[in-house]
Design a protein that fits this description.
Oligomer: single chain
Largest sheet: none
Strand content: under 5%
Number of strands: 0
Order of helices and strands: HHHHHH
Number of domains: 1
Length: about 130
């Protein structure tokens, strides 16, 4: 599917009044991916150095998996319901990751608060879009 096809498909969906303009998603995710790369990378390195247990790394890995799956599900498959399930899993694994890293490296949880807020907002948005387009 082309980018234009995805944009056209998304544009025709019914959206709630609080849906931001489509152009906003790129800049927001660019900033968030920088935070994710630094903070999640730190957790990975600490796990590889055996300073953190794998159980601390696991929710970060799952979060990356669910986050990466969202766009192909939503815009490739054009499946709002499956995208809703995926984004709820993204939110859940992020909360789990922040909880597991709180004691060993509190800064990782703190710098991911904007990511948490955006994913929480995106979850409400996705669930709303799914409901409105059922």
């Amino acid at each position: 599917m082309t980018g234009n096809g995805a944009a056209a498909w998304y544009a025709q969906l019914d959206k709630p009044f609080f849906a931001p303009p489509a152009w906003l998603f790129g800049p927001v995710w660019t900033v968030l991916y920088i935070v994710i790369a630094i903070s999640f990378g730190y957790v990975l390195v600490q796990c590889l150095r055996r300073k953190l247990a794998f159980r601390v790394l696991l929710p970060f890995l799952l979060n990356l998996l669910f986050n990466a799956a969202y766009t192909p599900i939503q815009f490739g498959l054009r499946n709002n319901l499956l995208a809703s399930v995926d984004i709820v899993l993204t939110l859940g694994t992020l909360l789990w990751a922040m909880w597991t890293i709180w004691r060993p490296a509190r800064w990782v949880a703190v710098v991911n608060v904007p990511y948490l807020l955006w994913v929480a907002f995106a979850t409400v948005l996705q669930l709303s879009i799914t409901w409105l387009n059922r």
